[in-house]
Amino acid sequence: QQQVKQSPQSLIVQKGGISIINCAYENTAFDYFPWYQQFPGKGPALLIAIRPDVSEKKEGRFTISFNKSAKQFSLHIMDSQPGDSATYFCAAKRPLETSGSRLTFGEGTQLTVNP
Amino acid sequence: KAGVTQTPRYLIKTRGQQVTLSCSPISGHRSVSWYQQTPGQGLQFLFEYFSETQRNKGNFPGRFSGRQFSNSRSEMNVSTLELGDSALYLCASSLRTSSYNEQFFGPGTRLTVL
Prior knowledge:
The complex is a heterodimer. In chain A, the strands form 2 sheets. In chain A, strands 2, 4, 5, 9, 10 and 11 form a 6-stranded mixed beta sheet that branches. In chain A, strands 1-3-8-7-6 form a 5-stranded antiparallel beta sheet, with no helix packed on it. Chain A has one helix spanning about 95-100, and strands at about 5, 10-15, 20-25, 35-40, 45-50, 55-60, 60-65, 70-75, 85-95, 105, 110-115. Chain A has 1 helix and 11 strands, in the order βββββββββαββ. Chain A is globular, with a radius of gyration of 14 Å. Chain A is mostly beta strands. Helices cover about 5% and strands about 55% of the residues of chain A. By secondary structure, chain B is mainly β. Helix content of chain B is about 0%, strand content about 55%. Chain B contains no helices and 11 strands. The interface of A and B includes residues 93 and 105 of A.
C-alpha cells in the first residue's frame, strides 16, 4: 500500500523557471513531512521539512505548501537552476513513539533543469 | 563532523549467497535505519535499530536481518540472495530524541545479484 503518492514522475524546467512537485498522503497520523534531494551516486539529503500545524515554509528558493484538509503538500523551487537537477522525494513520518524514525517515501521525481 | 559511512560501496553476489553490509552512523547518533532503493519500488523501509534493539521493521521477508553494536554501528544481512534483491541499500542515522530529528543518509551500498 503506497501511503504517499508523488507526481509527476519526471519534470523538465527551463533555467529560471518554477519547479512544482506534488505529494498526497493517506494516513492522518503523519506529523512530519520532509523533502529529500538525491544526486546520482549519493544518498538522499534533507532539503526542507514542514509540520502540519503550518501551511507554508520557505527556505531560500525552496518552499513547501501544506494543505492539511486535502492531505496534500508540494515543493516549489523558484528560479530553478541546472544544479537543482536531481531526484526529489517527499516523505512522511509518524510520531516517534508510534513508528520510531521510519520514513514513508513517495515514488520520486526526476527533475531536469535545462540551461 | 564525519557523515554516515557505508561499506562496501559496491558488491556483486550470486543467487543463493548471503551478504553483510555495514553502516557507521554520525558520531553521537544512536539510531540507524536501513532502506532499500530500487527503480520499481522506490525507497522502502527495512528496519531501525536503536540502543542495540530493533525498534521497527518494514515489510520484508525474514531473509533480511540486522543488528547494532554498542558503538551504534549497524550491519544488515541478507541470506539466500535472490535476483530481486539487487538494489541500493541505504542507511540513515539520527539522534532519535524528537520526532523531528533530521535523518542523515549514507551514500549506500550498491548490491548486484547475478
